[in-house]
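Let's do one together. I've listed all components of the complex below, 380 residues spread over two lines.
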Amino acid sequence: MGRWEPNARGRLEKAALELYATRGFDATTVAEIAARAGLTERTFFRHFADKREVLFGGSGTLEEHLVKGTVSALAEGLGPVEAITAALCQIAGETFTGERRALARDRQAVIASHPDLRERELIKMASMASALAGALREHGVSDPGAALAAEAGVAIFKVAFGRWITGPGSRPLADIIRETAGVLNSVTGG
Amino acid sequence: MGRWEPNARGRLEKAALELYATRGFDATTVAEIAARAGLTERTFFRHFADKREVLFGGSGTLEEHLVKGTVSALAEGLGPVEAITAALCQIAGETFTGERRALARDRQAVIASHPDLRERELIKMASMASALAGALREHGVSDPGAALAAEAGVAIFKVAFGRWITGPGSRPLADIIRETAGVLNSVTGG
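Okay, and this is what the predicted structure of the assembly comes out as:
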């Protein structure tokens, strides 16, 4: 592949998820992931600290985009949960495109099968809620509204994402997020 | 104390929380907890599997009561989040009384200071949400409404509980839960 290694990160991610899904997370080695991607272990470690980071490496960026998008939407006059929903829809359109769906499903299956990874996923969601609540507070939403809106936003994301990866696959994630936010309104009986 | 050891569990819990708060969770031994409670280590292990279970031993019972209460409230015709809120208020009135507040605050401080315990708390909350969602589905609430209502209910509990233990202390938890549920309605903008 030469030293440019085009899309090395994406190839490593795909190879890792395929191996985690077929042989299990614990049984897969970094050497095998690198070999399957046609790259070296050294290249793997240039992109990921360890096997686990392949699954969670994007969560910092996701959180950052979500906070930024929410703050922009608040500035446009949306309510707190509406603002988070708008930010989620934008991220969904840009990041969680149709081609990502199979990978996202493999990722979720690996996480579901492994208690440590499920814990890590819970921590990721809690961190997202905490970052969102902080951003809402800084932009004029008082508590407990800020904390509740952040939890509601993360719940919308979690439930919509699950529907996206298990559903028939023809619907964009952004549509499912909007619909899920509407269902939350109806169950809270507001 | 004799072999009846009146309220051994409660005494051990109080002693443990006081020691965790003053010396730290890691530095506290079961022998010290038992001694402070005026009981033996053997008695400790009759009530708790380990030091951690003092903090989480009640979560199974809480989850069970919450599910039962929610199912009863659904049967009375309440909406899904209203039903969970009603169940939470009942549990609050029975279990989280004013005298429990200082203990609950000590418990939360210990958990906040320890990453492993924070993870365990997240798992407890996720388990509560999952149990609630299952109960709602079994009683005619379809998804994604069931999953969302369960997440919303847990968010109400988490936020209200935090307000109860950090607030001025004169308000019963049930009042705070009801108010918090109202705030969730207003932020979702239903």
